């Protein structure tokens, strides 16, 4: 599907993988809507790329609906959704203070899983009513999982559960939305040089990079964005989960 001229919505677009994706889409001629819970971050990125900033919570029905409506009014309607919003606090099932608070687990599931599904369901409903493009296409959705979906480490039980569910949604969602000409793909990134990782001490970053078989470095968010581009433009790619990780397999801790 062609990116140029299409209306696109990127969640978590104010930093990291989402920001790189927003910049890639803008460079290729899309009308980019940058959604982020951090309004200042969304405004900064949108202003830099000539996009539109949308402040909101992906797990909120009202916020998500407003974002879809805004993006749907651009171009010939919302054609591209990329879900990058997510959180990843570490917590053990049994920590020093006892069992993990249920609310902590619920928050990760709410943002990562329910937020992704919330945006996907509303975007798909909008796309289904759009006129067909070439090859009967109406839209493309790219979700973000993680290698933690299969290689979860100690302290990642909530995060892994949320990302594993996103992986599991890829096939049934793609099958269901196929009749509308909407494709659903998922990218499972490994260790990327996001703002969070860049805040770690240099020796920690070097240790993480050394654990990656090849190339032995942190992933560049631009490489994630390029994978998103491939997912959008390659019309035969559907229901796929792409590991983007330099062949790493995470150790228990």
UniProtKB/TrEMBL annotation:
Keywords: Oxidoreductase. It holds the Pfam family adh_short. It comes from the Bacteria. GO terms for molecular function: oxidoreductase activity. The keyword Cytoplasm does not apply. Belongs to the short-chain dehydrogenases/reductases (SDR) family. This is 3-hydroxy-2-methylbutyryl-CoA dehydrogenase. It comes from Ciceribacter selenitireducens ATCC BAA-1503.
